[in-house]
Structures are given as C-alpha cells and as structure tokens.
Design brief:
It is a single chain. It contains nine helices and seven strands, in the order E-H-E-H-E-H-E-H-E-H-H-E-H-H-H-E. With 252 residues, the protein is of the alpha/beta class. It has one domain: NAD(P)-binding Rossmann-like Domain (Rossmann fold). Helix 2 links the parallel strand 2 and strand 3. The longest helix is centred in the middle third of the chain and has 28 residues. The site of nicotinamide-adenine-dinucleotide has 26 residues, from helix 1.
Length: 252
C-alpha cells in the first residue's frame, strides 16, 4: 500500500500503460479519477481499479481542449477531496517520412502530447499546491531523447515534454511539487502498430527489438506501471526534474 491516502488524477489512462498504472495505483491504496477521450474504456479501467481495491471513477476529457482539462481537474479535486498526483499518459503518434507530414498533422501530434501535458499541469498544479504539495508525472518517450526515424513530429513533441518537465520541476519545487517524466522504450500496446508497420511488420520489428534492446524483447504496460507508482509515492520524495527510462536497457 505504497500510495495509501493518495488522491490521483490520471489523464489518458483508459488503455495501455496508463490503464496498467491506474490499476497499480488502486492496488497500492490510491483513490483515483481516470479521465480519457475514450469514455467506455475509461469506465472499464475504473471498474478494474475498484476490483484491485481502490476507489476509482471515470470522466470524459479531451486534452486538446483546455476547458475540458480544467473541468476534469476541478471535478477530480472535488470528488477526491483534494489532489496529490497528476499522471498524464495521453498520446498520439503518426509515422512517415518528413515530406508526408503537413502542418495539421504536426499540430495534431503536438496538441495531444505536448500542449495536453501543459494544460493538465497548468490546472492540476494549483490543486496539488492547495494539498500541500505532491507529484506531477508526465509521459515522454525514448524517442523524445534519442529520436526515431519516421517519427520526427512525435519525437519533437516528446522532446518538448522532457524540456517542459524539467522547467516545471524548477518552477514548482518551492511548492513541494515534484515533476518527473517517464520515458518508456518499446512497450507492447496497439499504440505502436503504425511504427511497427513502418518498420516492416511484426517479425521485422521483433528482430530489430532483439538487436537494439539488451533485454531482447518489448516491455509490457505492467512493467512500466511501477515507475509511476514510485514517482507518486513518498519513496521518490528527493527525485524531481528527472527522465526515468523504462526501456529494457535500450538507452545505454
Ligand atoms: N507503447 C509504447 O511503446 C510507448 C513508448 C513510449 C511512450 N509511450 C507513451 O505512453 C503513453 C501511453 O501510450 P500507450 O502505448 O499506453 O497507448 P494507448 O493508446 O493505450 O494510450 C493512449 C491513451 O491516450 C488517450 N488519448 C488519446 N488522445 C486523447 C485526447 N485527445 N484526450 C484524452 N485522452 C486521449 C487514449 O484514449 C488512450 O487511452 C503515450 O503518451 C505514448 O506516447 C508509449
């Protein structure tokens, strides 16, 4: 019960890594709100969280819309009786050569990954300050640090998330609010289907993963979730402004 008494807003946690993190939060005693554009999946994830032993409700949220993000922060603070943690997972990926990216695609990727992170932290920050401090956890990617061919706008948006996280950590440290990014490597979710297609399909991708990931395989969402639990818990109270890689050793 490493998160006993913690109150968390988890945005983009209806599926994949966020869903696994939400279930891990619930299993560790947190009360949480799952906010996502996919309301049906968010409700299902909240149900799994309740089965894991934590109180959880689901709300609709589109992170591209600041009013929608502010509304879920307000509702979460009210429903949970305060807010200690924001964990942001919402992501959008498009792949292809740079010539194939137009302004609208570039903006769409930034709107979810980078601007969505900004809206969430902007509105959750004051709520966490009112609670006396806490933790903001963003989700970047190894691509945001190391780049990735065929993903220039996604890599740029995830790089922006890292810079944002470090700057915000400095800004909010006096309020006892820590801000850290999780950088997953290759994690097995349908999110990567376009990237896997670009790399020649499932078998070709598996071969590349065997070559570039020292542990020789993709990770699972459940193997990334404990990093979010750590960053939300008191165990990480001296950790801020960090990029925490969960990547099977790919960056070394
Ligand atoms: N899977 C990987 O290998 C990998 C690697 C590095 C980083 N990531 C990052 O991890 C995060 C989660 O990815 P995942 O693999 O679990 O994929 P996922 O598709 O399961 O999760 C993305 C979530 O974001 C939600 N979302 C998308 N647009 C939204 C919007 N406008 N408003 C609100 N919610 C929205 C989706 O409904 C979904 O629940 C993403 O930020 C992704 O960039 C994933």
């Amino acid at each position: 019960m490493r998160l006993a008494g913690k109150r968390a807003l988890m945005i983009g946690a209806a599926t994949g890594i966020g869903r696994a993190a939400a279930i891990a939060f619930a299993g560790n005693g947190a009360k949480l709100v799952i906010a996502d554009i996919n309301v049906e999946a968010a409700n299902e994830a909240a149900e799994r969280c309740r089965e894991a032993g934590g109180a959880a409700i689901a709300l609709a949220c589109d992170v591209r819309d600041e009013a929608s993000v502010k509304a879920v922060v307000d509702k979460a603070e009210e429903a949970l009786g305060g807010l200690d943690t924001l964990a942001f997972f919402a992501g959008l990926q498009r792949t292809g050569p740079i010539e194939a990216f137009d302004a609208a695609t570039w903006d769409a990727i930034f709107a979810v990954n980078a601007r969505g992170t900004f809206f969430a932290a902007k509105h959750a920050g004051p709520a966490i300050r009112r609670a006396g401090g806490g933790s903001i956890i963003t989700t970047s990617s190894l691509a945001g640090l190391r780049g990735a061919a065929g993903m220039v706008s996604y890599a740029a948006a995830k790089g922006a998330v890292i810079a944002f996280t470090v700057a915000l950590a400095q800004e909010l440290a006096p309020d006892n609010i820590r801000v850290n990014a999780v950088l997953p490597g290759w994690i097995d979710t349908p999110f990567n289907d376009p990237a896997i297609a670009l790399m020649g399909g499932v078998e070709a991708h598996a071969e590349i993963v065997r070559r570039i990931v020292p542990l020789g395989r993709q990770g699972t969402p459940e193997e990334v979730a404990p990093m979010y639990v750590f960053l939300a818990s008191e165990e990480s109270r001296y950790v801020t402004a960090k990029s925490m890689m969960v990547d099977g050793g790919m960056a070394h």
